[in-house]
Amino acid sequence: MIESLKKQDVRKRCEEALQKAKEYQHVLNAVVTFYDIEEQLEGLNAIREDAPLYGIPVVLKDNINTKGVRTTASSRILDNYIPVYDAHIVEKLKAAGAVIIAKSSMDELGMGGTNRNAYTGKVNNPWDVTRISGGSSGGSAVLVASGAVPIAIGTDTGDSIRKPAAYNGIIGLKPTYGRISRYGVIPYASSLDHVGLFAAAVHDAAKALTVLAGRDDRDMTSSYEAVADYEKAINSDIGGKRIAVFDNVLEAIEDSRILDNFKQLCETLKKRGAIVEHVRLDDSLMNALVPVYFIISNAEATANHSNLDGIRFGMREDGDTMEEIMIHTRTKGFSSYVRKRFVIGSYSLFEENQEKIFRKAQKVRRKIVEELARVMNGYDVLLAPAASTVAPHDEDACEEKLSKTYLVAENHMVLGNFSGYPSMSVPTGFLEHMPIGINMTAHPFDEQSLFDIGAAIEEETGLKDKIAEVKA
Amino acid sequence: MKYETVIGIEIHCELKTKTKMFSSAPVAFGEQANSCVNEIDLGHPGTLPCVNKKAVELAIMAATALHCEIDSLVKFDRKNYYYSDLPKGFQITQQFHPIGTGGYVEIDTEQGKKRIRINRIHMEEDTAKQFHNEQGTLIDFNRAGTPLVEIVSEADMRSGAEAAAYVENLRTMLYYLGVSDVKMEEGSMRCDVNISLRRTSDDPFGVKTEIKNLNSISNVQKAVESEYERQSRILDEGGVILQETRRYDEAQKTTVSMRMKEGSVDYKYFPEPNITPIQLDEAWIRSIQQSLPELPRERKQRYEEQYGLRSYDADVLVQNRELSDFYDAACQYSKEYQLLANWTITELTAALNKANRKMAENRCRPEDLAQLVTMIKAGEISGKQAKEVFADVFEGKDPKKVVEEKGMKQMSDEGALLAMVQEVLDKNPQSIIDFKNGKDRAVGFLVGQVMKASKGQANPAMTNKLIQEELKKR
User: Fold this and answer.
1) Best residue of A311, A322, A342, A344 to probe chain B, by most B CBs closer than 10 Å
2) Is A248 exposed, middle or buried (0-12, 13-18, 19+ CB in 10 A)?
3) Strands, E, within A62-184: which ranges?
4) Domain segments of chain A: what residues?
5) What is the pLDDT of residues B413-459, one digit of tens each?
6) A110: which chain B residues are within 8 Å (Cβ-Cβ)?
7) What is the pLDDT of residues B189-229, one digit of tens each?
8) What is the greatest pairwise CA distance in chain A?
9) What's domain A2-217+231-240+447-461's architecture?
């Protein structure tokens, strides 16, 4: 999509993107803040026209700090927060010529998978506005799926890019932990947070990763690993590629139509010369994914968000003492959903609980990662359906049920966050006019395998650049 | 003493780095409020910590000097609590893996040398500074994020004097290392003292109180002693000591309660996820350890053993590193070590005080003082003359030139002096008779005559000797 956009006039394509996002707003509710793009268009004069994203309109999830532009993380407590600095990736995007048109809605502070927990309200799915976008990067997902922009930035702590990507029929990439700097990204859980992106085509995703990736000295977890020209290197000839099918997930999916779509894909990949075999992870470890995720993510989150106290920035509720100001601000500033997660996180860190809850969760996380490494040994990617259903209707989007479907089929992608392995969702078809997709996980820093196999899938499905028509 | 005092000390010491522990904002003291801060120091959303390598280096130096074992795998943890001087709502510290453990510091006590064991030394970041006034509270974030080491001793001290000696010892040591400014009055070194009493050393530890924020070494001793009085009075009356945090009130000369310690606070420590463990290069650690400067205890030993200085003089010199460095430089030019020490400690210090100059503003060159001392020892000038010459040497003048200009060179040529002595004796026969009759003061008169004849330049000691010899011959 980027290459075809580049045939249009720069101003025109950016203005059209902004225009579309604005038109769709009352239907999708995807945007928190629209940009005035004039300044950025002028700024392009200082950028070479052959810069990879020259004049390409993009959207940022609203937890990406933008100097001078309101950044709320879809939380009331940051409703008036205007960052004093740009996130590392904002500098990178600007240097590459990208034009930011909007900051997109998300589940408050990244907590949630539906995007119903946003301070500005729920985000609707462009394929069927009575259904959820998924989250937490829901706004970014639907702005790509509706064709407003070719690239949108998201973040992924559990599956917050890859799940909404699947629900919206687009590419969702969460690269290796440390591949993209997190400096300036409002966190959820530091050891699980990844910056990633949405695109309507594999080539665009690969191009964007090359722009965003690379060492940043301000993020000690960012990697020195060299950054490839992933797009140029894409090779959709996947003969000999070794693909491991994730049986635990297949077993947990009830809808046979999803399974049929997946089996068909596997046959297609085999026909293209890939070696497709079946693997399974230890069941008890699979059942531990959700509890381990909840404990670690919320323990880190409760500390990460202790800075939101009303003292130095953000909203402030009055009080007679500093302590009162903090209590009142935090009580009013966070939704009860977020406060509940803080309580869970805090509880697991109490001295009397820490060993048997938080530390144990960390140990189980390590066991899970070792198990993942074991089953992926000898394979290029681990492959599974991204979700057990299409995007649910708003009223059906119930989280946190302890069924096998929920524990395994709906949450297996958190493996990519536990391990830091790169992982990508790719659309593979439609079920009753709603998109469905698969998820692939590769070895650390082997994003190229994801792009190669993704490109092959795209060639087979013909879903490249497929976007929803939104009736504004 | 009716009770034994048991003292353990925690010292927070700001490291002398250019930038902060986890951000690139400058470390400065006395700058305009909130001018040395960036988004990290203010705990803005999305910021991440980046470990200051220089701070790690300084911490390794301190840990080595404290004879601690170094943990080459550097890890940090979060200490969680809400307070308005703590921007992130947690402090990054080293709870579970301090950089140094199990060391000691040697102090001098009345009973001789004593080792105070060090439990741990770890790195962490400082908080912001708060100012409370009638309108409310003002916060200056300049200090927020300044690198600190916390040094925790075992409860090995038994008196206020030992506590003061320990703090003084650490202070000079850290200063020599160049690790910290150690200015207690400016807060770059802060001292919390834990004190409990017990009947005998066989009894278990009593309930302790913590005295916070002592701002001078003399106050450490005073606070311990007044807290001993307070606690012993309570115990004498059959009361119980409450576990609390106190401060030392200089005006009242007593400790005052700040707050009760109601059980310990749960800081919910857990590993800092944004700093993955850093494996330090063993060769790097070794190179830091091998290039440690000479420490005060080593220097004192050198002064005593190599230069033969009195222990007291060695102490006085070592406690003031700049003065001691001056002395060391002077010792390169003269082997009159004790005499040099005397002149450095008394004359130079007095002159500096009188001129209201710091060592950094000192104009006296070590080689000149050494020269002066050499001239005294060689009898080229008298002690009285030397003091006069020193006034100019203090201003940076060469003592030889001063002596020349003032024409005060001492006459020490034995031949010339003898001729002068003979002449004086010839002129004063009555004095010779007096001497023979046992009137020793005649010698003094004769020396005075020689001095007069030489216009004060005759070496008095030599003159005296020659006169005595010549008198006996006559």
Assistant:
1) A311
2) buried
3) 99-104, 124-125, 128-132, 151-156, 171-174
4) 2-217+231-240+447-461
5) 788 888 888 888 888 888 888 888 888 888 888 888 888 887 777 87
6) none
7) 999 999 999 999 999 999 999 999 899 999 999 999 999 99
8) 71
9) Alpha-Beta Complex (3.90)
